[in-house]
Amino acid sequence: MTAVLYDLSLRMGYIYDVPASGARHIMRLMPLSLTNRQRLVAGSITISPTPDEQSHFVDFFQHPATAFMLRAPHEELDIRMQARVQVESQPIVADFSPLLADLPEEIAGIWSLAPDSPHHFLGDSPRLTPTREIADYARSCAKPDLTAMQIAHALCTRINKDFTYDPDATTVDTTPLEAFKLKRGVCQDFTHVMILALRSLGIPAGYVSGFLRTIPPPGKERLEGADAMHAWVRIWCGETIGWIELDPTNDIPAGTDHIVVAYGRDYSDVVPVIGVLKSYGGQRAVQAVDVIPLK
């Protein structure tokens, strides 16, 4: 196995038309340390203006999060994160996943309700409710002689082929059905559509939030979505294999180009910065990402 070391920097901010007189926010921005997958070597986050209160906690899906409050009026919020992360290459996994018809029996055999239990990733979630159009789309890829892993790969490839990456086509609040009808969008849209498609077939699937390598290796094309935080899909393929991760935006398995920040059922579980503020008028968001491999 090989490993790639990255220096990662993120600037995320909001500029308000009218100063906000107070705000409360929760952040999930720091990459995780995951056994045999990636290691957070060092990291820091700075917030401007300096919070009046700040606390740290771990959410249900075991992600470190930071809550902070600003009492004084402020015209903008500026968050900067820097980290050094080592990402390990993953071994090629042979397909020992069950046929789709046999997957429910394996799911039923899982009694755990731990954060990574497949039971949490089968039904509705805050941003994802079943839609007939996406279910019909999924069934076209679910041939009876295919395994759960083969179906996941087939859906990943088809979504990548049928959808166009277009950062101007959707917003963070676009529903999966709206994006599906447009056949355009960004990584969040590709990921939500694929999760709904898999769940409609009874295959547990979840959302991965993270970062994507900014500078490609020599001779390789730059991946879509590298200018901002990225998203891809986590799929449970039976007891023997467990979870795999696929990136439908680029039609590739998640590998050393992908740095994990959080796992969840959908985007609502992993929002990088969420909160409330006292203000009126509009706001403008700013985001810049650099994921630089170290020589």
Give the rounded overall mean pLDDT: 93
Main beta sheet? 5 strands, antiparallel
The secondary-structure class comes to alpha+beta
Terminal CA distance reads 17 Å
Overall geometry comes to globular
The count of helical stretches stands at 5
Secondary structure: number of strands: 15
**Biggest sheet strand line-up:** 12-11-10-9-13
| Spans of at least 5 consecutive residues with low confidence | none
Helix content: 10-25%
Provide structural commentary.
By secondary structure, this protein is of the alpha+beta class. Helices cover 17% and strands 38% of the residues. The protein has 5 helices and 15 strands. A hairpin with a 6-residue loop joins β10 (230-236) and β11 (243-247). The longest helix has 15 residues, at 148-162. It is globular. The two termini are 17 Å apart. The model has no long low-confidence stretch (mean pLDDT 93).
Q: Which key phrases capture this entry?
A:
4-stranded antiparallel beta sheet, 295 residues, Papain-like_cys_pep_sf, 5-stranded antiparallel beta sheet, 38% strand, 5 helices, Transglutaminase-like, Bac_transglu_N, alpha+beta, Transglutaminase family protein
